Amino acid sequence: MSDVNADDWVSSGHRPMGFPEFVIVIASIMALNPLAMDMMLPALPNIGTAFKIPVANHLQLVLSTFLIGFGAGQFVMGPLSDRFGRRPVLLGGMAVYAVASVLAVAAPSFETLLLARALQGLGTAATRVIATSIVRDCYVGRRMASVMSLAMMVFIAVPVIAPSFGQAVLLVAQWRGIFVVLMLYGLLALAWSVWRLPETLPESERRSLAPADVLAAFRQTVTNRQTIGYAIAAGSVMGALFAYVFSAQQVFTGIYHLGHYFPLAFAAVAAGVAIAGFLNSRLVGRLGMRAISHGALTLYAVIASVMLVTEILNVLPLALFMALSALMMFSFGMMVANFTALAMEPQGHIAGTASSLYGSITTLIGIVVGMAIGQSFDGTLMPFSVGFFLSTIAALAIVLVVEKGRLFKPHHRSATSGTCRSS
After folding, report:
1. Contact status, residue 107 vs residue 242, Cβ threshold 8 Å
2. Would you give the DSSP letter of residue 375?
3. Which DSSP state fits 109?
4. Within 13 Å and on the Cβ side, how many CA atoms surround 135?
């Protein structure tokens, strides 16, 4: 927030951590998810060879099963954190992640590996939901968007380097070594959180786990036009991103024949998200969440249209595909934190449950869309281009409905004095 004195808006509730450490810890916790996702990309052919998987598209299950566990787990993590506090649920989820990594290392079959991946996803559901809830506990409105953008800038850098990191591990170890690295990172993040991260939800603000109360919170979340609308829109654009990740290894090695250079190409494209996270954190306080995210969504639609037309005309060389993909990542990065903040803005009193349901909706929609596109891969970019275009147009239509046809313009100015509830 460059337009105000930092001391005036930084919450005191995440003490003993100062603001930089708070952002880094939140980003590190959130990074468990993309690290576990993207480090696996270079290892998919090795896993297929090890378990004798005959159909290349089936290897996408290593990624999609992880996301299914992640999406389903979010349904329960929010209500649990609203009842018992943020710390115990977060630490429990990180422990599950570490145990699942051990199971993956020892997996004797492909089915066991998929089980371990689902459990890893379940564990990271806690990290994603609780991280968002902690930020919402501490900040509101544009300040929340700014904090989320800074965290996203750090955590989104993970997909940029994760495939290369995975490739580096494969140079000195088999694919199981990647899960050893994931386990060690999970244990490090767990120890840091135990040592430094405070509880941000006081006893007086905790909610009952009685079914009627939980259902009431869910009902309040899904009946809020702004929350549910931006959740569905985020899921739609996320579907295109998941489809890209699911099929990236096949596209870069099968269509463009990059071989071992695939991680470098993936990193170059993914850098767009990290750049977007930095720019959004600097601009959101001045321009507002709607102006930035709506502009990014419009750009997303233009990119999808160009990619579809060039694929139909059979004029989509590697350089153009990478440029369009980088712009896709950039526009997604300008959307994701703002869509989250807009969806969570009306839900401060049930932040955990709302974050839980929001995360589940966006992830599960993204998985369904992403798997439908990814499993349609036929050796060309046509299925991805068509799916990218349709999911983006759907998201744009949803946002138009939510905003009643008024894009880019802010509503009543969001509160800017976020105070973290601390115990």
Report:
1. no
2. T
3. S
4. 31
Which three-class secondary structure state does DSSP give residue 97? helix
Which string of b and e fits 6-38 if b means at least 16 CB within 10 Å? eeebbbebbeebebeebbbbbbbbbbbbbbbbb
Tokens 């409105």 belong to 141
Predicted model pTM: 0.76
Q: How far is CA 154 from CA 29, 123, 141, 397, in A?
A: 11, 20, 21, 31
User: Going residue by residue through the chain (423 aa), what tens digit of pLDDT does each one get?
Assistant: 333 444 456 655 567 777 778 888 888 888 898 899 889 989 999 999 999 998 888 999 999 999 999 988 888 887 888 888 889 999 999 999 999 999 999 999 999 999 999 999 999 999 888 887 888 777 776 677 677 766 766 666 677 788 888 999 999 999 999 999 999 999 999 999 888 888 888 888 787 778 887 788 888 888 889 999 999 999 999 999 999 989 998 999 999 999 888 888 988 888 887 788 778 877 877 888 899 999 999 999 999 999 999 999 999 999 999 999 999 999 998 998 889 888 888 876 676 677 778 888 998 899 999 999 999 999 999 999 999 999 999 999 999 999 988 888 766 544 433 444 433
User: Which one, of 93, 36, 45, 100, lies nearest residue 63 by Cα?
Assistant: 36
Residue 414 has φ and ψ, to the nearest 5°, of -65, 155
| Other Cβ atoms closer than 10 A to 56 | 16
The number of residues making up the chain comes to 423
Structure tokens at 342: 């807009």
Taking CA atoms, 298 is separated from 90, 233, 324, in Å, by: 36, 13, 14
Residue 196 identity (one-letter amino acid): R
Please, are residues 277 and 152 in contact by the beta-carbon 8 Å criterion?
Answer: yes
- For residue 219, count CB atoms less than 10 angstroms from its CB and return exposed for 0-12, middle for 13-18, buried for 19 or more: exposed
Quick check: 251 and 385 in contact, CB under 8 A?
no
